[in-house]
Structure formats: C-alpha cells, structure tokens
Amino acid sequence: MIMMEVEGSMNHAPDQSSFLRSRRSKALYQFKQQKLPACKPVLTPTSVITVFLLMGFVFIPIGLITLRASRDAIEIIDRYDVECIPEEYRINKLSYITNSSIPKNCTRYLKVQKFMKAPIYIYYQLDNYYQNHRRYVKSRSDQQLLYGLEYSHTSACEPEELSNGLPIVPCGLIAWSMFNDTFMFARESMKLKVNRNNIAWKSDREHKFGKNVYPSNFQNGTLIGGAKLDPSIPLSEQEDFIVWIRAAALLSFRKLYGRIEEDLEPGNVVVVNLINNYNTYSFSGQKKLILSTSSWIGGRNDFLGITYIVVGSSSIIISITFMLLHLKNPRPYGDNSWNKKSLSS
C-alpha cells in the first residue's frame, strides 16, 4: 500500500511541473502578444470634462492656500553691493574691492514694516553667479572633505589643488571662492545676537565632512579667493563653509547666514554693520542681504502657489471649452463592445 502511494506521487510530480511550465509559457505568450487582461477606459466627453473640472476645483484652492502661506512670510531685502562703494570708486568698483588697503566697512539701515516673529532668518543672496558651471562644480573632492590628507587623488581640484607644492585642504574652486562678507546687527544701539549654529544640513555635517579633517594650507597661495577657514576647527563644525560648498542650481541663489532669535516690532530700525569683502564686481554680480520669517510652507516663494492656480484655471478653461464644443457639435458614441469582449477574454 505504501509503495503504491509513493509511486503514484512520483508519477504525479512530472505532470505538475509540465502543467506549471505550460501555464508560464502561456502567460509569457499573452504578455508578448499584449493579450493580458487590462483596463481600457473609454474617454467620453462627459468623463473628460468632469476630470478637468475636478482638477480645477482641487488645484485652485490649494494654490490660494499655498500663496497665502507664502505671503505670510515677511521679508526685508537690501541690495548693498552698490551703496557700499564710496562715491570716488563708483566708476571703477573693481579697483576698490581688490585694494586691501581701503577699509570695506559699511552701514545699512533696515526699517521693519511688519511684526517679524523669531526666529528671523538671515540670508545673503548672490545674483548672476553661476555656481552651476560645470568646471566650477567639478572643482572639489568629496573624499578629501571626508578623509582629509589620507585621500590624495585630488586632480579634479585644479587649479586649487596644490599651493607651494603642498596639498590644499579643502581643495577646489568652490572652497577657494567662499563668501566672506560679514554682518553685525543692532537695534536701538543694542546688539542683536546672531545664532550661527545648525545652519547647515545635519546629514552634511555628520556624513560628508570629516570630524578629524582640519583646513591645511588654505588660501596661502599668491591668488587669494574668498574667506579663510580656522585651521583649529574641523570642517564638520565650520557650518558657513558647509552651507557655501553645497552648490546652487540657478544663477541667483540664497544661502543661510544665521538666525536672529528676537522678535522685531513694526517701526524698529535694524542697523547692519557689514564688511564688503566679496568681489562680485568683476562679473557684474549683485549682493543682497535678506531678513525673512517663515510659515508652515517655509520661506517666501510664490512659485508653487501660482503654479497650482495656473494649472487649475487652465483645467477649468479647457473643460468649459470642451463642454461648449460638445454642446455645439455633439457626436454619437461609437460601439465599444470590442472593449467589453477583450476585457472578458
């Protein structure tokens, strides 16, 4: 009895495997011939008009809410690159900015029009600055930023790879051209404290910059670029450098400088004592200082809200156009029995 059951099961096994193989080959054949069951919706005028109307009714309110949230963020924007040039150097700005013997101190006054709730974010904005240029973006070594002098393959950093025959840490044009204008803020002769901690991404601080990598031989060449770095502080703690080296995608960009942790009342005058060091005059660039609050959507940016409103309005216009055309020139629906047959098969 037992032997017969074993033999029966052994005879049944090949039948099962052949059945599975035939089933797989049939499914593969149906897939190749595009005969698998599929949903094939028939787009009638009513369904198309309904979809466009729903898109409009959903997108426009979202756009209005987003735009309102963006407008709730208050900004003070001050372009200072021209005003901080003395009158006698306005004709030749480049000679002023490249002459280290001329003091670069400048004072700006920013009047607060609306209540600004802390934290108030401080940004510097550069215009007509192509940080996305291919040669500029490639001039860095991510491995060196993480491992320091242990990593020596830094040929991509040219022409800022070596100085006086010694490797530069951090190397590359991005690091060399770091922004070096400085700002100090006061209100009614009382200094406003600027918090410059946690201005860089946490992932960058912890995973992209070595905790034991220190600046070495940086800005020691004949051609000095932008800011200098403290050789006693590791790169992972120099957050202004971490913010700068994350290259921007567009020719106009903002980078976070710090935060003011005090509220500003309407009518307050913020006195900004800055040092105008950074050279944007050689390429007709612009420099701006921005104080900004934030809302639940972030800083002030109308693009997303306007995009939702435009798409929603376009959808409603398209749906109305289709509706008028359908009412003016109605057409009978075609026979869609072929679709039902293909679905059943």
Automatic annotation (TrEMBL):
Record key words, sorted: Membrane, Transmembrane, Transmembrane helix
InterPro entries named in the record: CDC50/LEM3_fam
Subcellular location field: Membrane
TM annotation in the entry: 47-67, 303-325
Keyword Phosphoprotein listed: no
Pfam families assigned: CDC50
Tree of life domain: Eukaryota
Entry's Gene Ontology cellular component terms: endoplasmic reticulum; Golgi apparatus; plasma membrane
Cross-referenced PANTHER family: ALA-INTERACTING SUBUNIT 2-RELATED, CELL CYCLE CONTROL PROTEIN 50
Family named by the database record: Belongs to the CDC50/LEM3 family.
Protein name: ALA-interacting subunit
